[in-house]
Amino acid sequence: MIELLNNPISTCSQKVRLCLHEKKLEFVNTTLDFRKKEHLSPSYLKLNPNGVVPTLLHDGKPVVDSSVIIEYLEDVFPENPLSPADPYDRARMRAWMRYIEEVPTTAIRVPSFNKAFVRHYSDLEDQALQANADDRPLRKHFYQRMGRSGFSEKETEASLQQLENTIKRMDAALAQSQWLIGDELSLADYCVVPTIDRMRDLGLSQIWKEAGNFERWWQAIQQRDAYQQTYFPGSRVSDIYTDLRDAT
Length: 248
What we know:
CATH class of the largest domain: Mainly Alpha
Radius of gyration: 18 Å
Helix content: 40-55%
Number of strands: 4
Order of helices and strands: EHEHEEHHHHHHHHHHH
CATH architecture of the largest domain: Up-down Bundle
Shape: globular
Structural class: alpha+beta
Number of domains: 2
Number of helices: 13
Largest sheet: 4 strands, mixed
Strand content: 5-15%
Strand order of the largest sheet: 2-1-3-4
C-alpha cells in the first residue's frame, strides 16, 4: 500500500504526484492542511522530523524528501521507468536533479511567499511571528528572513536571476534532445516541472518567451496524463489566492 501525505499546492508534493501518476501507481492521496499546521503536528513529526511535505508511506514505512521518494519509487517499482538504463545517463539525470534541487526549487520559494503566502503573517505581533518561525524544524531562518513584509528586493532579484538561469540552461540542453536526458522522459524532467508551473502561476512566464527549445518541452509536458492528473482544481496558488489570477 502506498499513501502520500502531501498538500495540493506544495511543489515538492506535486513532484511526487507526477511520478506516481507517470508510473501508474495507485496511492492514497492524503492532504495535510498547512493553515492548521498539520505538517507540524507531533504525529506527523514522528514520521517526518523535518516538518515538511510530502512523506510517502509504503506498507506503513515512511520515506521523506521528495527527491529521495521518487528515486525510491524507481527502485521499488521498476515498471514504467523514469531513469535511463545507461549508467552515464543516470549520472547525468542525477546531476540535473541536484542542480534543480539547489537552484530553482529553492529560488521559487521567494516569489511564492512574496506574492501569495506572506499575507498570512503581515498582522502578526513580533512574538507570534517568532513563534511561527520557531515551529519550523527545517525552515526557521527562511521564515525569519521573510518576516511580515516578505523578502528583500535584493533576495527577490537573486531568486529571479536563478530562475532565469535555469531556463537558459534547460533551453540549451533541450536543443540537443527531446527531454533533459535524451529522448526518454526522466525524473529530471519531473523534478523541475512544479517550479515551472509555479512560475507561470505567479506571472513569470515572460522569462522563457525567447526560449524556443524550452517552450517545446513545456508544451509536451502539459500534454501528459500525469501532468493533468497532478494539477487538479485547487492545486495552484491562483486557485486559492484569486487576486493572482490576472498574473497567470
